[in-house]
Design brief:
heterodimer; A: about 120 residues; mainly beta; 11 strands; B: about 110 residues; six-stranded mixed β-sheet; about 0% helix; globular
């Protein structure tokens, strides 16, 4: 069973630039979620994708956007980077059951983004 | 929205002793409560979870208890070992088959003293 993989592992960008982070889901999972984890804090929910559509969003501005592809992999795009966007970005996958409950979230090791 | 409070922020215990981490949540609609362990340089790893239709769940040295009335849940680790040292996060959400973004606590840094 292949786990959740993210790329790149580290990234340095300048304020105002745009960034794309990538994620491959765990095999058998059809739902992808993205979280932002600031240093010393718990992860914060950005959004969730199911069937290639955004399906649930946390308190993040529209410059945070995403995509999910037919193979369930996903991208997180952040435009107009700000210094406060410096964080660990975590991708997690799960299996949506449609009724009842979803399978637990499994996280990748994240992408460390530094904005200077 | 949901708010999760976690205590303590740091917990130091002697190897072999027990550790308890406590969380409270605000949204009575939440029905799914996972616990994650995060080691340095890695993503969170699910260690145990509980749904609101049960009050306690155990897996070897780890147990979780849930009090729906008081809206709090706790993680219990017995016979702690050096490899238990890590940051632990509690989380809560309503999980009904649709979107279910987790709300996390701020984490507890567990230190196992040899």
């Amino acid at each position: 069973e292949t786990g959740v993989t993210q790329s790149p592992t580290h990234l340095i960008k300048t304020r105002g630039q745009q960034v794309t982070l990538r994620c491959s889901s765990q095999s058998g999972h059809n739902t992808v979620s993205w979280y932002q984890q600031a240093l010393g804090q718990g992860p914060q929910f950005i959004f969730q994708y199911y069937r290639e559509e955004e399906n649930g969003r946390g308190n993040f501005p529209p410059r945070f956007s995403g995509l999910q592809f037919p193979n369930y992999s996903s991208e997180l795009n952040v435009n107009a980077l700000e210094l406060d966007d410096s964080a660990l970005y975590l991708c997690a996958s799960s299996g949506r059951r449609g009724q009842g409950y979803n399978s637990p979230l499994h996280f990748g090791n994240g992408t460390r983004l530094t904005v200077t | 929205g949901e708010n999760v409070e976690q205590h303590p922020s740091t917990l130091s215990v002697q190897e072999g002793d027990s550790a308890v981490i406590k969380c409270t949540y605000s949204d009575s609609a939440s029905n799914y409560f996972p616990w994650y362990k995060q080691e340095l340089g890695k993503g969170p790893q699910l260690i145990i979870d509980i749904r609101s239709n049960v009050g306690e769940k155990k897996d070897q040295r780890i147990a979780v208890t849930l009090n729906k009335t008081a809206k709090h849940f706790s993680l219990h680790i017995t016979e702690t070992q050096p490899e238990d040292s890590a940051v632990y996060f509690c989380a809560a959400t309503y999980s009904g088959g649709g979107a279910d973004g987790l709300t996390f606590g701020k984490g507890t840094h567990l230190i196992i003293q040899p």
